[in-house]
Write a structure and sequence with these properties.
The protein is globular and about 50 Å long. It is of the alpha/beta class. A five-stranded parallel beta sheet has the order 3-2-1-4-5, with helices on both faces. The protein has seven helices and five strands. The longest helix is centred in the middle third of the chain and has 16 residues. The protein has one domain: Rossmann fold (3-Layer(aba) Sandwich), CATH 3.40.50.620.
Length: about 220
């Protein structure tokens, strides 16, 4: 199989991690199929806008945007339930209130269906284990188990590898790698709360800002 026919289905939120993962796949010779989820998250409009701009920059022709309304019904997360405040005090919890129950499991199951249909050899996801917010569905062991289940539950000729190129990186290394690959970080969004200017105080903003600080470069997006 020549390099031109390799396909990677990239789960892309519009955030820094999944964006870098997609650029790494393109750099490795994969044709990118982009997958984005609208799940009634607080910054849904902004994330979709970022996803679209990033896909344009990557010259992605095949794009899937899936609307999932049940996460709002389930609730239990500050990202999908407007009655739960997004924490801004930086206090560490074992599993933060911004964790959306089994989100990556659901995303990967849907990604598997599309990957099988498209004949993609790879699903790319930008999970980060060591420097993330402590989400259980970002662990390498969990993603590997999902890969096994996906291949057990698809056609015999379907062989899908889930690539998670950032899983052991720190945020500062993600910033550095993004700069090396000319990833348009100004098009990415990380804030859990706002869609205009990033709040700078939610867990995701703190992780991002600290990553840029340790990488000794300025974050190109605006903050309040």
């Amino acid at each position: 199989m020549n390099k031109q026919t390799k396909k990677a289905l990239c789960v892309m939120s519009g955030g820094m991690d999944s964006t870098l993962s997609a650029y790494m796949m393109k750099n490795s010779g994969y044709e990118i199929i982009a997958l984005h989820f609208n799940y009634d998250q607080r910054t849904q409009t902004k994330e979709l806008e970022c996803f679209t701009k990033i896909c344009n920059d990557l010259d992605v022709l095949e794009r899937y945007i899936l609307d999932l309304d049940f996460f709002k019904q389930i609730g239990a997360s500050a990202l999908t339930d407007k009655n739960i405040e997004v924490p801004t005090d930086g206090i560490e919890e074992s599993v933060p209130i911004t964790y959306v129950p089994f989100r990556n499991g659901i995303f990967l199951s849907m990604a598997a269906a599309i990957a099988e249909k498209e004949g993609a050899q790879v699903i790319s996801i930008g999970v980060v284990e060591e420097d993330s917010s402590g989400y259980p569905d970002c662990r390498e062991s969990y993603i590997k188990s999902m890969q096994k289940s996906i291949n057990l539950g698809t056609k015999d000729e379907t062989k899908i590898e889930i690539k998670m190129p950032l899983v052991h990186l720190k945020k500062s290394q993600i910033v550095q790698k993004s700069l090396e690959l000319n990833v348009p970080l100004h098009l990415t969004w990380s804030c859990y709360k706002n869609e205009n200017k990033s709040c700078g105080v939610c867990d995701s903003c703190r992780l991002r800002l600290n990553g840029f600080k340790l990488a000794r470069v300025a974050d190109p997006i605006e903050y309040e």
